[in-house]
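Risk mitigation, structural track. In case the binding assays with pyridoxal-5'-phosphate fail to produce interpretable data, a predicted complex structure has been prepared as a fallback.
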Amino acid sequence: MDETHIPAILAEADHWRSRDLASVWHPCTQMREHPDTLPLLPIARGEGAWLIGHDGRRYLDAVSSWWTNIHGHAEPRIAAAIARQAGTLEHVMLAGFTHAPAVELAERLLAIAPRQAGRAPLAKVFYADNGSAGVEVALKMAFHWFVNAGQPRRRKFIALHNGYHGETIGALSVGDIPLYRRVYAPLLCEALFAPSPDAWLASEGQSPAAQSEAAADALARMLDEHAGEVCALILEPRLQCAGGMRMHDPVYLKRVRELCDVHGVLLIADEIATGFGRTGTMFACESAPGGGIQPDLLCLSKGLTGGALPLAAVLATQHIYDGFLDDRRERAFLHSHSYTGNPLACAAALASLAIFDSDAVLQRNRERARRMGELAAAIAPHRHVADTRQSGMVVAFELTRDGAKQAPFPATSRVGLRAYREALQRGVVLRPLGDVLYWMPPYCIDDGALEQLAEVTAEVIDIATTEEASACA
Ligand SMILES: *Cc1c(COP(=O)(O)O)cnc(C)c1O
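Fallback model:
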């Protein structure tokens, strides 16, 4: 960098920061913490796995901008597809009208959706415009389907402890992260929470599979107890992301599918974060034993457009779709959003799916994931790392006071936040979930960037935990 330009560049970053703080209210942020406790970084552009700040510095986007980005920032093929579509048809309402991108994307999604031998495939796509809205669609659809079927008593949802499905009132109702949920509890609808199959919760000597089986047994008891009252069960297959990148044995999915069938309960798979290759297979449902399971409703968003534009899709079986066909209008699924099936977003999604084929992304990810595993293994023995876990293109490090599960850092210590700040200073975005640091990079990340990520992670774990451990003493 030309040294003489540094003051001008810094002034530009300050300029955007102060204008921002005068007018923008940020998501998931205590605004009081900006900019002193929590840095606010004006970003000028993106390039592959990197974000480039108005301060001229490069930041490795190790969390894929909230798990949305899969092929890198400003991906030229996705950008071109959006530009082409914008010059042709930017939007038309999807009621009474249709367009090629919505049709082609629906066909593509149904073609790649999880399949299970002996089940009728997912057959219809309902669009929404963000993940939470997609979850609302699935919840309302499940309940309404039973109303149409003459079973209005089935109005409860089962969700899992530590699960996350979004921030709107319905999605929060089936979420179990106290930080997001607690204050709104009086507004939420009733849901039942079943124990999580989370392998981290396994007792001493219990295998992840045994932990999954135990959680499934508890779910079976809950379903018995509430027979005839439950319309749907919603879960994040294999990986509870917002809940701290907690992972479970795939046998749980097989058990859940069987239990839902026995009890006539619809299974909603929320693959908003896990979909599109994140955990190794195109969808996490595919990894269940016996060739994978198929949900009755599948929610997709985040990586759907490669991270370029908001869009959600809810895939449903023909059986569910048919339950809404009637002469009476009120039996139809009348849910709508203005931007349902937006052509720009659909075009971005088609371009993203084409990249999976042209770049053999899933195959390339196996090599990427192997390298991530090697690099993580070198960090795992750290005295404050209680658990290192991986699921495909996700690696998480659980930090505790003395490396034992039972000794979390006090919530007030904010070890994760310290690590985040230190990592930013070293050019890496490692936004934590509490005291869990994780890697969830764009799939295009190269070896050099992965090595830098590992080096910075080791360094900031050291700094953040040493400071805190001495403060505790
Ligand atoms: C992010 C997320 C959502 C919500 O999606 P938004 O687009 O942020 O509303 C729902 N479910 C899961 C599993 C998610 O990770």
